[in-house]
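Fold Annotation — chain and its backbone

Encoding — discrete vocabulary of local shapes
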Amino acid sequence: MYEAVHILTSPAKLKLIDYLRNSATPEEMAVSLGMTRQAVDKHMKDFMKFGIVEKCWITGDRRPKVEFKLSRLGDLFYASVLELMADHVTRGREVMEDNMKILDRDLATGALSEERYIEKKNALLKNLSWFRK
């Protein structure tokens, strides 16, 4: 299970997911996202392994071409990932605010010197800087 999450949430795959909400050919994705066709094919293979995309053959006046689109299962998976990340950001901000309140209280009560307060505050802001974005 952890392997799937690791594979399916790489930065390159997350870029592709938004693109796959509408059907797209591997060539279109490669050009639009600045990837090689081989890289797109590898990502599509991974997506298909986990049921994330559907492969469709388009026939018409020209030779048949393949398109991929996000499957229902893929849409549900990535909706869950986005919800999980939003919850994580919310909790991270709450933890940061709680820790800041504790530092402020400790400074006000004299439990921390001003110098130590600044050190701890800077360390907290550095360690949790991702949540301030």
